[in-house]
Amino acid sequence: MSKKTKKPQVEEDDEETGRKLFGWLERPGATFYVILALAAVAAGTLFFDAFRARSAGGLDSLWGFYALIGAGGLTAAVLAGIGLQALLGRPLNYYEADDDQS
Amino acid sequence: MISLDQFNPGFALILAGLVCALSPWVGLRRLMLLAGPMASALLILSAGFGEHGATDALRFHLILFRLDELSFLFGLGFALAALLAGVFALHIADRLESASGLLHAGGAMAAVFAGDLVTFFLAVEVMALVGAGIVLAPRTAESARATGRYLTMQLLAGGLLAAGVALTAGAERSLDFNSLRPDSWGGGLILLALGIKCAFPGVHFWLKDSYPRASATGAVFLAPFTTKLAVYGLARAFAGADVLIWVGAIMVIFPIIYATVENDLRRVLSYSLINQLGFMVLGIGIGGPLGVGGAVALAFCHIFYKGLLFMGVGAVLHRTGTAKVTELGGLWRTMPVTALFTIIGAASIAAVPLFAGFGPKSLLTDAATGQGLWWVWFVLLVGAAGVLEHAGLKIPFFSFFAADSGKRPKEAPLNMLLAMAGSAAICIFVGVNPSWLYSLLPAPVNHDTFSVSHVLVQLQLLSFAALAFVALRRFGVHPHARDGILLDVDWFVRRPGRVLARWAMRTLSSGETALGELGRAMSTFVGPEGPIARSRLWRGGASNASAAWIAAILAVAVVAGLSTFY
User: Fold this and answer.
1) What are phi and psi of B60, to 5 degrees?
2) Does the pLDDT value for residue B540 go beyond 60?
3) Do B477 and A15 count as a contact with CB atoms less than 8 A apart?
4) Is A4 helix (H, G, I), strand (E, B) or coil?
5) Looking at the partner chain, which of A22, A45, A80 has a beta carbon nearest the beta carbon of B456?
6) ipTM of this model?
7) What is the phi-psi region of residue A63: left when phi exceeds 0, alpha when psi lies from -120 to 50, beta otherwise?
């Protein structure tokens, strides 16, 4: 019979705190509900955007302008990053040969 | 006799650092990590606004301690940051790291309170040189080489600063450290020196190279001081300089792209630091109470939320031995409190309403629109979306919540959690009460931060950016992290620059002139067989030789500068 190992009390406490704070993430559908909540906030801001005070004639007077900048800005950054990685990505030891010579 | 209120508060930290350096007792060193920052904070709070500690030394009229609205806010931020970093590092027994950390913080604070250019220069150099000890502290081959590159850039900045101070003093017949003209020779060189320390585009690589090489605690000591001191210098001397708008705009955008695909989270934070500095530089360039006020307020907040993020990632590194996206995930199970504090830091840097970054960034966007700088306003908005991606979502998500790495480390040590709790409390306090921060700014700012319009547009921008992040991951567009490096400007230094440096060294050493003699003497000292290269402490190869060369140039610049003045 294999000998049972007991976890230290401190680690058990850490795991208990983890379950209390973030354990709900492991429930079925948790990710879906997080995204749903995010979508609800986004939709709410879009709805109330119709009633927001605007600067005369500025770009931000367009309804949903900030939604476009938020989603577009993030997407552009990610796509640019992919291009950058393809162009300038190198293996981890790229400089090592030079460094070893010095 | 000098009374206590004449004493530059940075000297208290420097004194504590010296005690640390000399003390063989770990307990005393730990006491200094707490006592030094507390003493400096008390000195700041007990002194009245004005010039203290004026003295004549080396035929200069030096003002060792000047307290005004601008230096008060930076000094207070530095004192609190040093205290929190000290608490975070309490478990460390390494004398080099503890002493360097306190001396680095002390040098930065002494520079902030310097009332003249010579005191400022000397304090900046103390800060820069001892900063090398922090980078070196892990004592790995990588950290030694990064130390050499760090020193090279810091000493180059020091040489430029020395020359700039000398030229300014000669032209103006004054050592006052106030508004300077960027189009004058002296002012231009000082701007360039501050630019290196502020990681301007093209000379930014020392930051992303050295900070991730420091230890988990060392990075927390490095993050708040050098770059924020440069922001302080820019705000004091170059407010309203148009060139800073362009420089700041580039700084806001380019690091975002690097950070998006970077695998090492501490390098992500380093690029993120440059991005946030861009917001500050841009605000200083816009000028006026809103622009400079927004930049200064952001610098104050940034000290704490970036410190908090470095602490969160540092705690992960301390417990798991890695800070790479490809090796992390699912740590919320056993490091939930660290995860919670990291989320607070992430919300603050992403400028979520009620967290620290929101108020200052609102000031900056209003400063841009108030002056009709619509392209700047657009850059600020795109920058805000980018910040959410790499710092607001990537760091907490990939460390704590992404696919389970199977790692089950213990929660961070109590001292680390206390330091994170202190930083998080400041982030929330300033986020909820931005008017408290505004009341401390150099010029009064009356700003309705929580107007419906401000809150609504920010929530809209952030929530749609977050949805885009979800969609990009869902459809497999978001790049998978890869273990590797991304070439940056340092390629020029580490490849052709290295060849050039070797050639220059050979050429200089071979001549029969006085320059050749000097070159040979220098090569004997700093060359591969010289005492520096052979010493255990400074084993870093060619880059350390470059650092020593620049140290010599710095010494020549200082002597030339002083002789120019007289």
Assistant:
1) -105, 145
2) no
3) no
4) coil
5) A45
6) 0.89
7) beta
